[in-house]
What does this fold into?
Amino acid sequence: MSQARSTQTAQSPGLGLKTQQRPSEFSMAVTSIHNVEADGVRVFYRAAGDPNSPVVLLLHGFPTSSFMFRELIPRLADDYRVIAPDLPGFGFTEVPAERKYVYSFERLAATLNAFTHALKIRRFVLYVFDYGAPTGFRLAMAHPDRVAAIVSQNGNAYEEGLGDAWGPIRKYWAEPTPENRDAIGKNILTLEGTRWQYTHGVGDPESVPPESYTLDTALLERAGNKDIQLDLFLDYASNVKLYPAFQDYFRKLSHLC
It folds into this structure.
């Protein structure tokens, strides 16, 4: 069971970074769950760490949610304020029908921006994974002064990163017909398709805990959610068009380091 812990902080010389003086007994930061209204959306998020510490914003990918960071959050929380939202269409974030939300990556980034303002987060580090990457990169390009750093875990911004598995989706981009849309739904948005996301390339697939892909599948099976995912698959093409702009942003960012 997690327990609260008290720590003392000390200022390190030079860079002004905080170091933690931890108690000798075992302890782990407590992760709490919250909801906040932002952009007409009830955003669910997980949080841990000292509210006065530098903020790390964890952005999940498809087909998961902030649940994917359940073990990472407490590991970072000794030194950072860690915040992990569920993007609209995923996890436990709720979008009212009357909001008439348009599921696009531009809209996800706008909601994320509103979320940071709702929590009064002025500056943050982005930790991006999969769908979280184009969402976070859009936010970073729009507000570069607010982003202290970017950590990318499988966050693609290059066409070379779109492997063979993207073949059916590329076909859907070129020909967004009902037949191609239905084919993706039947082949990807299934329990087996979701399990593949976790086990593909793993030496022993049976070693992957089943609760991850089982929870993802249950949430994807909610009424109307498959259409949300298919809309986002189609709109992912807009990210590919932005790859040159993303890369230009990276080059400018690297010159500042």
Q: What stands out?
A: The chain has one domain: 23-256. The beta strands are 8-11, 18-21, 32-38, 41-48, 55-59, 81-85, 124-129, 147-153. The chain has eight helices and eight strands. The longest strand covers residues 41-48.
